[in-house]
Amino acid sequence: MKTRKIRKPHRLRFPVVAVCSILFLAQTSAHAGDDQMAPVIDNNRVTVFDVTLNPGKPWTAPKDIDFAEMILVGGKIRSTTPDGKSSTAARKSGAVIYVTRGTVAALEASSKDPSRVVIVELKGPDVPPLPNKSGYPLAFPRPGAIKVFENNRVIAWNSTWRHGVPIPVHYHDKDIVIVFRDSGSIKSTQLNGESTVGDNEFGTTRFSKSNRIHSEELISGKGSAIVLELKQ
């Protein structure tokens, strides 16, 4: 994964409200295998793990915190409760499952093929969405984005970018975790005309803060991702 800045003359005569891009200036991940379970992102809002689930090798879930499962590679996944009861469900790539603290003790692939899940532990403090005073629409909903889950804490989207169809200027009122499902390069352009290109790979995971204004455009490869907006 590479990040590139493209400096261009100012083309839009507006004040710059945000300097961080949703796609490029946040912490990124490398895949954490079975023997390396260090978090790929850890801050005061979330702790994120990139987990490969294999049959016969359960992954121990956190006991005292809510978390979201962002399914990167789907399959049949067995969930075991603290009292030892288990259930198996087929999870599709792009799905998001919300787990309330203390209800799941372990996750495991129940088929021969492994599954890959990005686990987002939701920590405090609460940071509610910011009021949108930018004059631009919110980042979501938007064309190319399908809502796949929502509750009082998060909203999850399957988002796509298409060649020749830029995402117009928009405002991010929430912190997000984003997991890319394709490899490609996406350009982010701020109001002052300065652009940054992010070269993303399958599984690249980032955290980005709210209060950002920019447009987005796929310039090479493919672009799709699971986006988790933090509502509080």
Question: How are the SSEs ordered, and which strands pair?
Answer:
Blueprint: E1 2-6, E2 41-42, E3 46-53, E4 59-60, E5 67-73, E6 75-80, E7 86-91, E8 96-99, E9 106-109, E10 115-122, E11 145-150, E12 154-161, E13 167-172, E14 176-180, E15 184-189, E16 195-200, E17 205-208, E18 212-221, E19 223-230
Antiparallel strand pairs: 1-16, 2-3, 3-10, 4-9, 5-8, 5-10, 6-7, 6-9, 11-12, 12-19, 13-18, 14-17, 14-19, 15-16, 15-18
Give an account of the 3D structure.
By secondary structure, the protein is an all-beta fold. It contains no helices and 19 strands.
Descriptive keywords:
mainly beta, five-stranded antiparallel β-sheet, 2 domains, globular, 232 residues, single chain, Jelly Rolls
Structural class: mainly beta
Give the biggest sheet: 5 strands, antiparallel
CATH topology annotation of the largest domain: Jelly Rolls
* Residue share in β-strands: over 45%
Q: Please, how many helices? A: 0
The radius of gyration over CA amounts to: 18 Å
Gross morphology is globular
Strand order of the largest sheet: 1-16-15-18-13
Q: What is the straight-line distance between the termini? A: 30 Å
CATH architecture designation of the largest domain: Sandwich
CATH class of the largest domain: Mainly Beta
DSSP summary, beta strand count: 19
H/E element sequence: EEEEEEEEEEEEEEEEEEE
Helix content: under 10%
Instruction: Give the rounded overall mean pLDDT.
Output: 88
